[in-house]
Each structure stands twice: as C-alpha cells, then as structure tokens.
Specification:
alpha/beta, Rossmann fold, 2 domains, seven-stranded mixed sheet, three-stranded antiparallel sheet
Length: 295
C-alpha cells in the first residue's frame, strides 16, 4: 500500500472513531482490511482505497471502522474494578439512592458483551440488597458486529473460561454444545445494547450513576481523550463514578473527575458528599462492620 493511501485510511479512522494509527501499524491495516479486498475481487488495498474515496459508501465505512477497532473483551476483565464496584461503590450507591430511584450503569465500550453481562451478574447476586430499585444497564459500542454477538449472548468454552468463576457459569449460563454457552435470558434482559460512537452526540443516552469506559482512552490522542471525558462527564450524575482501565487516568486530562480514595481505577464526579464521600468512609471501616451496617 502506497504511503498516501495508508495516510488516507489513518485520517479516515481518526475522524470516525478517534483511533490513532502510527506509521508502524501498516501491517495491522493490511491484515484487517485484506478480507474486504478479497471479497470485492480486487488485487490490492490501493484499489480498495480508490473505491472508498470514490463511492463514500456509509455502510462500507462502518464495516471498515468495525474491522479496525479493537473489540477484545472477557468476563471480569482485570478483576479489581468489579470487586471495587461490588464491595464499595454499589453499597454506597444503594445507601445514597432512595429505594425507588432507578440506578443506571453504562458500559461505554461493551464490545461482545462480557463487561455489561458481568455487571448484570454482580447485580443479580446483590438482588436482596437492591430491594425494589430498578436497574438499567446500557452497553454501547461502535462495532455493529460486536453488538450482534453481544445480543446473542453466545460464547465459546474458551471465552467463558477467561475470568468467569465456575459457580457463575453454572448459575447464569446454559450449555448449548460441547463448546458453546449462552447467557441466560434473565441476565440478557438486564442489558440494553446500542450502537454508539463516543465522538458523537451522547445526549440520547441520558445520565448515569456509574460509567465503565475501560481500555478505550489508550487508543486516543490527548485532544480526543479530553473530548471524550468531557462528553462522558455530561452524561453522569453529579456524584457519579467513572471506571477507567488500569493504564488510563484522568490526571492532566480532565478536571471533572477526581481519583477516589480506596477505589483504585475509579474516579468520582463529586466531592465529599454523596457516593464519593461514602466510599471514602466505607474504605476506612472494617469489612465486618460494613457487612453489619448493610445487612
């Protein structure tokens, strides 16, 4: 592929998804887009780029963006954020929200569904503590193909073995073959999946108490990180909590969020009041006392 065509694709992907590709990523572009070349019986990626430039077919542009965005995910990925959510954030949220107020959670890069379904399982485990509170989990992603898989809720043996505790597999999945497991319908119903570009208009989503946007910012340059965090902050309750990936931070990027004491990887919108302050207080209380106070 000639340099000017590689640069065209880099610019196209940046404009559509915020994805930044360095010069040494030409191999990645070729490996992920060559199937389109073969599908259209073309001889090279350069011919394919000419078609893109000429036709500007929106459906094809979406397919290209799908192919180039990273969609790897697995259940309970990185572990610690979900432990913090279940043991610290959720108890504080329950305490700080009335029994009738809906709790809304957004998985902002849902990929093939493992993250929002992980959250759904955790909330199902805490059903008795939630009482009559209505729970809404929204999972969004830029990839239509990934969302299609997420809606099916069907995973291979390898995928369910990556981080999913065996007791939750048995409890919340049904085995459909020797190598495939499907998330039970009651868990799938807890999650609403939608196509969404984080660079677009997010106002249609409403506001959330908790946002998981993990392992997304690492693919953006600084201006795009600033833009995305600003957009997310506007979609959160004033004392909402944001979870980022282990290699990500808001420091030096956004003043809307502050690191939460005792909750690594979690960032609060508020100060000492509300959920943020309660998590700080809970982190200083022995676990046995926490259990008694929230029994």
């Amino acid at each position: 592929m000639i340099p000017k065509n590689f640069q065209y694709l880099c610019d196209l992907l940046y404009q559509r998804s915020g994805l930044v590709l360095s010069d040494n990523k030409a191999y990645l572009v070729e490996s992920r887009l060559m199937p389109f070349v073969r599908q259209k019986n073309m001889e090279s990626l350069d011919d394919f780029v000419e078609i893109i430039q000429r036709d500007k077919d929106e459906s094809l542009l979406r397919e290209i963006t799908d192919a180039m965005t990273t969609n790897e995910s697995f259940f309970f990925r990185d572990g610690k954020p979900f432990k913090i959510f279940q043991e610290s954030i959720l108890p504080a949220l329950i305490e700080n929200r009335s029994g009738t107020k809906k709790i809304r959670i957004w998985s902002a890069a849902a990929a093939t569904g493992q993250e929002p379904y992980t959250l759904a399982m955790l909330l199902k485990e805490e059903e008795a503590k939630l009482g009559k509170r209505e729970i809404e989990i929204i999972g969004t992603d830029i990839s239509d193909e990934s969302l299609k898989r997420a809606r099916e809720g069907l995973y291979t043996q390898f995928e369910v073995q990556r981080g999913l505790p065996i007791q939750l597999l048995v409890k919340y999945f049904s085995q459909e073959s020797n190598n495939q497991w499907r998330v039970n319908e009651d868990i799938r119903k807890m999650v609403s999946l939608r196509h969404m570009n984080l660079l677009g208009d997010l106002s249609i989503l409403g506001t959330f108490d908790i946002v998981f946007c993990r392992n997304v910012l690492i693919y953006f340059d600084q201006p795009t990180k600033i833009q995305v965090l600003e957009k997310i902050s506007k979609r959160m309750e004033r004392d909402g909590v944001l979870f980022l990936g282990g290699a990500e931070t808001v420091l030096g990027i956004s003043d809307s969020f502050k690191p939460m004491s005792g909750a690594r990887g979690a960032y609060g919108m508020g100060g000492s009041d509300g959920v943020v302050g309660m998590v700080a207080a809970l982190s200083s209380v022995p676990a046995t006392q926490q259990s008694a106070s929230h029994a």
